[in-house]
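Batch manifest, entry 17 of 40.
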Amino acid sequence: MREGLKCRSGYRAWREITTRWADNDAYGHVNNTVYYSWFDSAVNAWLIEAGLLDIADGDPIGLVVETGCRYARPLAYPEPVEIGLAVERLGRSSVRYRLGVFAKGGDEAAAEGHFVHVYVGRESRRPVELPPAWREGLEGILAS
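Output type: structure tokens
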């Protein structure tokens, strides 16, 4: 039997997303590909706001090596959504993020995904150990 989706308390940081007209598909709900864009935006926005990611000149940079999503209930434009974020696993050079998609104010996730970054040198594109400031920041949103 598959484990249920985490509720709101399973996340440590939040990002509100405004759905767009183009997000709905022919079936009248947000298309599954849009969720992956939300995951990418939520993780990178958090990293930027935490002072860790400098997209123009920073080193290291995160490359996505794995992502997945489970869907529980549909969402549709013009419904605003909230993306919950937590670090599930903090490795030497990789981070596995858990992301929950919630209707604004809702306690039950409409979807739950994961997103794995391997951090690499900007020039070398080879894995590098997370800098101490990164590790400290990411530990602050470590799932309990």
